[in-house]
Amino acid sequence: MIEIRSSKNQIIKEIKSLYRRRNRWKNNLYIIEGIKIVDEAISHGIDFKYILFTDKLMTTKQGIGIYNKIREKENIIKTNESIFQEVSDTDNPQGILAVVKFKERDVELSYSMETPFLLFLDGIQDPGNMGTIIRTGDAFNIDGIILGKGSVDPYNPKVVRSTMGSIFRTPLYFCGDNIKYLNKVRKSGISVLTTTMKGKAIYEGNLGRALLLVIGNESSGVSQDIVEISDENVTIPILGKAESLNAGIAASIIMYEAMKSRH
Question: Given 61, 125, 183, 248, which residue has the most CB atoms within 10 angstroms?
Answer without folding.
Answer: 248
